């Protein structure tokens, strides 16, 4: 029973994320997923939208500062999903899979199927 | 014996026998007698039906279908860089109804207070028949001026006197505006632990006709995560991934008022 409730909670979280309404589709290319491996420069767990700032190479190999978004999420919703102000440590290595910004700017949106953040040991975040 | 006196007598009798008396959110003692109880905290809104081109927020198809020529012209010209939200201006109504954050409703004798987790927005609905003075002519408000009344099992809220809002019906790149002629009628009713909002929005300046939609909000025991404390620098950082429609203009150095 407890396991069933836990799985149910996970499904609910996913549904909340997928039905969020802000203009992600207008800003990010939801038909593509890019993968970035880099080091955390900053984790801004703050409203209106928490941002993970990641230093990682761009497609030409140039070290670039990327803004990682989590859909339209704000601190209340991300906290309910398990994120917190200390989720990421400056200097730690993470891998991000997400939708790239349509305008080619160094920004990625972690939202929906196939996207996510994993730590160096392979554990997914949160 | 009057109903309230009877309840108090029952509570006193139960307390005297050592039986614990617990008020749940649906039995809040603050709700005035004789009115439908819609008090509580609600989160996780669900559009009814599950999705449409206006719920939880007007999308591009909705704007194409519902906005008049004036509204479409505004959308075509408006630049995301001019959106007030990048200076932490709060979300307006009806947009905030579709946001996926929580709302707390408190029913008092002469007013109903809506506290939204998003943007620290608080709306006061002045219940009719309590002698409230209307604001003087010329005063307009971001979230309008709201009056309310109970009809059967519903709280009916009518709101007008809005300021112009470039994202009044949709934000985030869509940018469907609303005018000072925007009028909303919200009808709230409760079925168990679900609060239902039936909304009618009108705006003859920008809409071809009224917009109607329905949202269900499940009750929650979680408190609101307040304060929201929007950070302008973080809000503006979102513009890194947005292209201006007017790149030939001088760059914008936004000043933060905080």
Question: How would you explain this protein's 3D organization?
Answer:
- The complex is a heterodimer of chains A (126) and B (258).
- Chain A contains three helices and seven strands; from the N terminus they run ααβββαββββ.
- Chain A is α+β, with helices and mostly antiparallel strands and 126 residues long.
- In chain A, strand 6 and strand 7 form a beta hairpin.
- The radius of gyration of chain A is 14 Å and the shape is globular.
- Chain B is 16% helix and 28% strand.
- The interface between A and B is medium-sized, with 31 and 34 residues.
What's the gist of this structure?
The complex is a heterodimer of chains A (126) and B (258). Chain A is of the alpha+beta class.
Number of strands of chain B: 12
Helical stretch count of chain A? Answer: 3
Shape of chain A, please?
globular
* Count of beta strands of chain A: 7
What proportion of the residues of chain A form beta strands (DSSP E)?
25-35%
Summing up helix and strand content along with how strands pair, one would put the structural category of chain A as alpha+beta
Superfamily (CATH H level) name of chain A: Nucleic acid-binding proteins
- Percentage of residues in helical conformation of chain B: 10-25%
Q: What is the average of the pLDDT values of chain A?
A: 82
Radius of gyration of chain B: 21 Å
Number of helices of chain B: 5
Q: Calculate Rg of chain A over CA atoms.
A: 14 Å
Helical residue percent of chain A?
Answer: 10-25%
* Chain pair with largest interface: A-B, 31 and 34 residues
| Spans of at least 5 consecutive residues with low confidence of chain B | 1-29
Topology overview:
The complex is a heterodimer of chains A (126) and B (258).
Chain A: H1 2-18, H2 24-27, E1 34-44, E2 51-57, E3 63-69, H3 75-81, E4 93-100, E5 107-109, E6 116-119, E7 124-125
Parallel strand pairs in A: 3-5
Antiparallel strand pairs in A: 1-2, 1-4, 2-3, 4-5, 4-6, 6-7
Chain B: H1 3-16, E1 40-42, E2 46-48, H2 60-66, H3 69-77, H4 95-98, E3 103-107, E4 111-116, E5 122-127, E6 145-151, E7 154-160, E8 165-170, E9 176-178, E10 183-191, E11 194-202, E12 211-218, H5 232-237
Parallel strand pairs in B: 5-6
Antiparallel strand pairs in B: 1-3, 2-12, 3-4, 4-5, 6-7, 7-10, 8-9, 10-11, 11-12
């Amino acid at each position: 029973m407890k396991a069933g409730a836990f799985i149910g909670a996970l499904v609910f979280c996913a549904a909340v994320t997928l039905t969020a309404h802000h203009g992600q589709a207008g800003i990010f290319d939801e038909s593509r997923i890019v993968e970035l491996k880099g080091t955390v420069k900053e984790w801004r767990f703050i409203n209106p939208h928490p941002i993970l700032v990641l230093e990682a190479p761009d497609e030409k190999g140039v070290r670039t500062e990327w803004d990682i978004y989590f859909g339209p999420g704000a601190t209340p919703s991300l906290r309910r999903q398990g994120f917190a102000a200390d989720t990421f440590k400056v200097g730690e290595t993470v891998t991000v899979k997400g939708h790239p910004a349509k305008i080619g700017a160094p920004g990625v949106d972690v939202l929906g199927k196939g996207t996510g953040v994993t730590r160096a040991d392979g554990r997914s975040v949160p | 014996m009057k109903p309230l006196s009877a309840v108090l007598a029952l509570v006193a009798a139960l307390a005297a026998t050592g039986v614990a008396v617990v008020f749940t959110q649906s039995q809040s003692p603050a709700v005035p007698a004789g009115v439908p109880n819609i008090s509580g905290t609600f989160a996780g809104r669900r559009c009814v039906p599950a999705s449409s081109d206006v719920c939880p927020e007007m999308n591009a198809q909705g704007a194409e279908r519902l906005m008049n020529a004036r509204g479409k012209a505004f959308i075509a010209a408006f630049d995301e860089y001019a959106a007030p939200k990048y200076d932490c201006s709060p979300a307006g109504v009806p947009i905030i109804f579709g946001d996926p954050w929580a709302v707390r409703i408190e029913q008092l004798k002469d007013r109903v207070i809506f506290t939204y987790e998003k943007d620290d927005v608080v709306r006061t609905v002045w219940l009719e028949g309590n002698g409230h003075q209307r604001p003087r002519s010329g005063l307009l408000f971001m979230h309008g001026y709201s009056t309310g009344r109970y009809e059967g099992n519903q709280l009916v809220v009518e709101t007008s006197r809005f300021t112009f809002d470039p994202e009044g019906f949709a934000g985030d790149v869509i940018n469907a505006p609303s005018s000072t002629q925007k009028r909303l009628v919200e009808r709230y009713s409760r079925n168990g632990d679900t609060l239902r909002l039936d909304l009618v929005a009108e705006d003859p300046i920008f809409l071809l006709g009224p917009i109607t939609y329905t949202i269900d909000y499940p009750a929650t025991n979680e408190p609101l995560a307040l304060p929201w404390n929007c950070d302008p620098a973080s809000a503006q950082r979102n513009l890194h991934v947005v292209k201006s429609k007017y790149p030939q203009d001088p760059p914008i150095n936004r000043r933060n008022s905080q």
